[in-house]
Specification:
Order of helices and strands: HHHHHHHHHHH
Largest sheet: none
Radius of gyration: 19 Å
Number of helices: 11
Strand content: under 5%
Number of strands: 0
Helix content: 40-55%
Length: 246
């Protein structure tokens, strides 16, 4: 089994769609995917929640506890190897670019995923979600499709909410989103919303963000934009499922 460092596991979790990325504007794309490096212990809440999301999708094989144990690390390695093999099978990378002894989510994997996403008409973010990995498992790829509804922006959903703020599906989706986002993300959204820099602010409710949002208010726009950037594909899918529920 590959002895992954915390940094490498963080990038695997981001690359597979379980952990919200932070873009590193000075990233060395010859060595790393364009996400901030984090070699801290895998014990912070966002990382543990991301590990749990990975474990839940493989709950028949893993215990869902947020602990990056040997079984979890081994399945992460198998998942990366499987992803890389399918990218090569469909012609988005070569054996030289993705050798079998490099099961990491580095720049070559990131670039190959973006090529696949462009070919499929998907958002080109280099993040291979479970849905996209399942597409890659097919013997031949389906025709290119237009941008899915899941790419709707929060500002578009705000205008829907404004027309019907009592809609129980909208409220349930926002409450579920609040529960699934890491505390540090909600802290930053709160500080941007209020124009503060508190270390432990009283978290703003996302239902209130949608209720009182003012597009002319810079703080409100910054808060909504940051919130948008921190929603992973997995969280977005669950959120939109509740939002669109009749």
């Amino acid at each position: 089994m590959t002895p992954y460092t915390p940094q490498q596991i963080h990038h695997i979790l981001i690359g597979l769609g379980y952990l919200a990325p932070e873009i590193d504007p000075k990233a060395d794309l010859t060595k790393f995917a364009p996400w901030k490096r984090n070699d801290n212990a895998l014990t912070d809440q966002p990382t543990q929640e991301a590990i749990k999301r990975f474990q839940k999708q493989y709950s028949s094989k893993l215990t869902v506890n947020g602990n990056p144990d040997s079984e979890t690390r081994s399945l992460m390695e198998d998942t990366i190897k499987g992803l890389q093999n399918r990218l090569k099978f469909h012609g988005f990378a070569t054996n030289t670019e993705l050798p079998s002894d490099r099961p990491f989510y580095g720049p070559a994997t990131y670039t190959a995923v973006k090529k696949f996403q462009k070919f499929q008409g998907l958002t080109e973010n280099g993040i291979a979600t479970m849905e996209q990995r399942q597409i890659l498992q097919q013997a031949s790829l389906p025709p290119k499709k237009s941008q899915p509804q899941s790419q709707l922006k929060l500002i578009d959903l705000y205008f829907q909410f404004k027309k019907n703020p009592q809609n129980s599906s909208y409220i349930a989706a926002l409450n579920n989103l609040q529960q699934n986002l890491p505390k540090d993300v909600l802290n930053k959204v709160t500080n941007k919303w209020r124009g503060t820099n508190d270390q432990n602010p009283e978290i703003v409710k996302l239902t209130n963000v949608f209720t009182y949002y003012d597009d002319n208010n810079t703080n409100h726009r910054d808060a909504l934009n940051h919130l948008q950037s921190q929603i992973t594909p997995a969280i977005s899918q669950a959120f939109l499922s509740l939002w669109n529920k009749k």
